[in-house]
Amino acid sequence: MKRNQTILQALLLAIMLIAASAAYAQEDYRFDIGAGVGMTGYLGDANSANLYRHPGFDGEVFLRYIINPRLGLKTNFYAGTLSGNSADMANVFPDGKSYEFSTTFYELGELFEFNFFEFGMGETYRKLKRITPYITAGLSVTMWTVQKKVYAGFTIPLGLGVKFKASRRVNLGLEFLMKKVFSDRLDGVQLEDPYTIKSAFAKNTDWYSTLTLTISYEFSKRCAVCNYKD
Fold it and tell me: pTM for the complete prediction?
């Protein structure tokens, strides 16, 4: 009788451990929602060298679809400020004048992310890492206002970052993006063609950057009743 009780207790313990392991394995999520704050920089006709000579700020909200521990798609919205002053440059414009500008921009984009390591927390056999560097690229639409005139254009963001899993569902991140603007009016129409060069892609020198610290929260379990990960 005592032996049977010992076997029963062992079986119950084994069942509890298996159930706990299964529950832990189920916590794999499809989406990651978050926000961040940081600083911006500008390169263009009013600042050709020092990206952060006139730093601005940015705020971000985003929704990431977690394809798997290596890949993600992030939809993001930025709002921030940019400014520059050509008087700080060594180059001199043909008319000898200097120009300055400031603007507030709004950006909506889609980014593809590639993690260098399998990002996550979980079973040892999955070889997940709580921290990973990553690279990212995508396409955005940016709108801005200079001297009460509204402009818009496509933007190509390219960058890198690092993610850290603070807990099973909470992530911290730091991301740097350089963004090529398909318009030469980011710094205003007066700097669209200061060297009187005919319109060409090569003369379009306007870029801006975002360096953003983020926090996010994962939700929507990928598999609530099984251990299979699609």
Answer: 0.78
